[in-house]
Amino acid sequence: MRAVVLLSGGLDSTTALAIARSEGFACHALTVAYGQLHRCEIDAASRVAVALGAAEHRVVSLDLAPLARSALTAADLAVPKNRPLEEIGAAGDVPVTYVPARNTVLCALALAWAETLGAFDLFLGVNVLDASGYPDCRPEFVGAFEALANQATRAATSGEGRFILHAPLIALGKADIIRRGLALGVDYALTHSCYDPAGDGAACGACDACLLRARGFAAAGIPDPTRYHPV
User: Which H or E run includes 27?
Assistant: First the structure.
């Protein structure tokens, strides 16, 4: 069985890749350089793909920056720092790090590759409990895209198969994700989560992604392997 796994190089997508592999899929990992301001996560994805034995890893460049304005794609927008944890992911909280339509575009690319490969399983590492309120990390998005995939492709409409968009982490918090990944042999030191890393790739320790990651390791009772930039 083949599956296409969207791999950003972060903690969540890495765990999703490990889960797909554990379920017996030959994993074709897809990383998208979408115009983000740093390459740290792309480099991390390459490390992870090798470590977790992906059957293939492709990096596709598709610059969303001219169209999708976000603190992750525009240097003049500041990444929020040191927000209270109870504020992150609260109802209605969609911070400036949200990249408009990013997951829609990424899933469409994964779908195109899957149909070409003859695969009907896609893996996406989104979760809602510890996520920063992004609308494209919700179950409604996953269900809607899966329905679209089965209406918009030759493979599905000709009866060859039915596409499934797996989101195995969607109801898990970071601590549970970390525990699941460790049980599957994930080395989280290979991953990168920070929205605003230093020039040497060290994590800032203060953006939403860093705060959620640190809280996850603390709650799991696991030493945090992240290399943080000294304050």
Answer: strand 26-33
Q: Can you tell me which residue has the tokens 């794609």? A: 73
Dihedral sign of CA atoms 132, 18, 168, 8 in order: positive
* pLDDT single digits (tens) 195-214: 999 999 999 999 999 999 99
The DSSP output letter for 228 is: B
Residues 6+ apart with CB under 8 A from 51: 187, 190
Query: Can you tell me the distance from the alpha carbon of 228 to that of 197, in angstroms, rounded to the nearest whole number?
Result: 9
The DSSP string of 44-59 is HHHHHHHHTT-SEEEE
Per domain, the residue ranges of the chain are 2-220
pLDDT greater than 70 at residue 54:
yes
Strand partners, 208: none
Q: Is the pTM of this model over 0.90?
A: yes
Q: Model confidence over 100-111: pLDDT tens digits?
A: 999 999 999 999
- d(C-alpha 30, C-alpha 49), whole Å: 9
121-123 and 26-33 as β-strands: parallel, antiparallel, unpaired?
unpaired
CA 5 – CA 154 distance, rounded (Å): 21
CATH number for the domain formed by residue range(s) 2-220: 3.40.50.620
- Do 212 and 84 touch, CB atoms closer than 8 A? no
